[in-house]
């Protein structure tokens, strides 16, 4: 089955700086790579996703890149704000989601 | 609220008791997934349905677990003879899959049911 590894496990950034989270996956059949944000005690919420026929996707301050050859994808958050503090999960999917272990992002004011 | 809903939100039970959780997906979604999340970890896939058919079960889903989606709408997840290791957040997600089995689809999660087994 699919195995997704996510790094780093924790990330502390100064407000206004950028944050980068990296994930690798094992199954070359995976063709969909979503990112979820989960605040304490709340449901995971989809913030951005990328499909295997695209190398990069951007939505305001958030961008995701995908390298299918190397089987890795990354989340980039620019101009971080305190409300970006949360746990972020990457996932890889063909028809079910396999999640990474999560990255706890803390944005220092 | 037109999102995915789950009930109950919290359940405390004693070891050996049976529990049942309910998930109501987004109404037009044909796929429904169950995941389990323990503290500090990402959600782990348990099982999923396309309409009323249960198409896959993870090896994490022991024979004490059973899930149904009788009319292709809401789903229930039952755990029999609960053990302390079953304590976790049980998340339901739904999606609208337009293609075949291998098609990808955005999954929307419910708020989860937090199970505590004493």
Low-confidence segments of chain B:
none
Helix content of chain A: under 10%
**SSE class of chain A:** mainly beta
For the largest interface, the chains and their residue counts are:
A-B, 26 and 26 residues
Structural account:
- The complex is a heterodimer of chains A (109) and B (118).
- With 109 residues, chain A is mainly beta.
- Chain A is built from no helices and eleven strands.
- In chain B, strands 2, 4, 5, 6, 9, 10 and 11 form a seven-stranded mixed beta sheet that branches. In chain B, strands 1-3-8-7 form a four-stranded antiparallel beta sheet, with no helix packed on it.
- Chain B has 118 residues and is mostly beta strands.
- The chains are: A mainly beta (109), B mainly beta (118).
- The interface between A and B is medium-sized, with 26 and 26 residues.
List the helices and strands and how they pair.
The complex is a heterodimer of chains A (109) and B (118).
Chain A: E1 4-7, E2 10-14, E3 19-25, E4 32-38, E5 45-51, E6 56-59, E7 62-67, E8 72-77, E9 86-93, E10 97-99, E11 103-108
Parallel strand pairs in A: 2-11
Antiparallel strand pairs in A: 1-3, 3-8, 4-5, 4-9, 6-7, 7-8, 9-10, 9-11
Chain B: E1 5-7, E2 10-13, E3 19-24, E4 31-37, E5 44-50, E6 53-57, E7 65-68, E8 75-79, E9 88-95, E10 108-109, E11 113-117
Parallel strand pairs in B: 2-11
Antiparallel strand pairs in B: 1-3, 3-8, 4-5, 4-9, 5-6, 7-8, 9-10, 9-11
What is shown here, in short?
The complex is a heterodimer of chains A (109) and B (118). Chain A is mostly beta strands. Helices cover 0% and strands 58% of the residues of chain A.
């Amino acid at each position: 089955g699919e195995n997704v590894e996510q790094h780093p496990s924790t990330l502390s950034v100064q407000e206004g700086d950028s944050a980068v989270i990296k994930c690798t996956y094992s199954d070359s059949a995976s063709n969909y790579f979503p990112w979820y944000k989960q605040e304490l005690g709340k449901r995971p919420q989809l913030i951005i996703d990328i499909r295997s026929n695209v190398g990069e996707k951007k939505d305001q301050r958030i961008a995701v890149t995908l390298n299918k050859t190397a089987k890795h994808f990354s989340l980039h958050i620019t101009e971080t704000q305190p409300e970006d503090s949360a746990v972020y999960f990457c996932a890889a999917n063909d028809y079910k989601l396999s999640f990474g272990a999560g990255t706890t992002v803390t944005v220092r004011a | 609220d037109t999102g995915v809903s789950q009930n109950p939100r919290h359940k405390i039970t004693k070891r050996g008791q049976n529990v049942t959780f309910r998930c109501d997906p987004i109404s037009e979604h044909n796929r429904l997934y169950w995941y389990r999340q323990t503290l500090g970890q990402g959600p782990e896939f348990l099982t999923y349905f396309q309409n009323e058919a249960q198409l896959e079960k993870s090896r994490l889903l022991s024979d004490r677990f059973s899930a149904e989606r009788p009319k292709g709408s809401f789903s229930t997840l039952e755990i029999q003879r609960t053990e302390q290791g079953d304590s976790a957040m049980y998340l339901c997600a739904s999606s609208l899959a337009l293609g075949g089995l291998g098609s990808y689809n955005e999954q929307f999660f419910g708020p989860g049911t937090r199970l505590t087994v004493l």
